[in-house]
Amino acid sequence: RNLSPFTPTVSRKTGSRVSRMFSMSHKSPPPKVPQPNRLDEVYEALKKGLTAYLEVHQLELEKLSTQIRESKRNSRLGFLYDLDKQVKSIERFLRRLEFHASKIDELYEAYCIQRRLRDGAHNMVKAYSTGSPGSREARESLAEASKGYKEYTENMCLLENELESQLGEFHIRMKGLAGFARLCAGDQYEIFMKYGRQRWKLRGRIEVNSKQVWDSEEMVFLPLVTEFLSIKVTELKSLANHVVVGNVSCETKDLFAALPQVVAVDINDLGTLKLSLEVTWNPFDKDDQPSAASSVNKASTVNKRFSTYNQSPPDTPSLREQAFYVSVHQAGLLRRHGQW
């Protein structure tokens, strides 16, 4: 796990108005105006995250294959069967990842084609608009270019929305507030996160011995292309006296990572109050969740079992195995003397 701070993108604001409680909602409809520059940045970050995902699972696959080769002579069949199931599960997951990456590449390539066509139509509209619009041919060409520009713009918006639906999920776990001398026992805080149409509101209390109790600890956000994650922290002092500690907007394209990340968000200007979150990116949606998505965690369990088996390897055969070996030896002797 990496400890990397979020990068604030908007200046912090303070106020006294209390936010309303919002419920979780789905993604926004296709945008009316495409954002090609922003999509380029998200695509590069997404490809980097998918490549890291493939590398992590490929290393885990090689590690399991090495364990299988080393344990064939000195292990139980049940343990080998468990390792083999893990290998096949990771192999299936790798194929899903490769197919997912190729699908994203196809969508991005189609988006780039529509963008070039849109730029060409825009240049034509600009050229016909600056010229003399008196001739009939010029007016018809201008209308045709304008129609093409509108059509390519709509196609870009649809492809942008489709690519956004392939970004997977962000699983966010609340780790707590870190405030050094800023936090005291009895303080109550409210955290409100806004990500597009998605909302998460939770309240917490600072207990004795710096222990923190929150009414909610986990949330799943669907990644968005053009939106930033807005975090607002309010200190609840009395019924009508709430103080907004800070309101920050954070970049999310750096969260496309293979392993869970613990990120620290500076809430106030001085950085004396930080919000700690654990973010895990899943490249697939919950409706398209492969069985091997947690293969790395499963493999760590297998590693523990592997060390346990190595502590007491079954070198001495059991009584049943001894009887089997004796029967095989006797059958070989009978076959050698022609009696069987």
TrEMBL record:
All copies of the FAM65 N-terminal domain together span: 7-329
Task: List, alphabetically, the InterPro entries matched.
Answer: FAM65_N, HR1_rpt_sf, RIPOR3
Q: List the record's Gene Ontology CC terms alphabetically.
A: cytoplasm
Q: Where is the composition biased (Polar residues)?
A: 1-17
Q: Which SUPFAM superfamilies match?
A: HR1 repeat
Please, which domain of life does this record's source organism belong to? Eukaryota
Positions of region (Disordered)? 1-36
Q: Which residues cross the membrane?
A: none
Give the PANTHER family listed for this entry. Answer: PROTEIN KINASE PKN/PRK1, EFFECTOR (PTHR15829), RHO FAMILY-INTERACTING CELL POLARIZATION REGULATOR 1 (PTHR15829:SF1)
**Similarity section:** Belongs to the RIPOR family.
| Record protein name field | RIPR1 regulator
Q: What would be the name of the gene that encodes this protein?
A: Ripor1
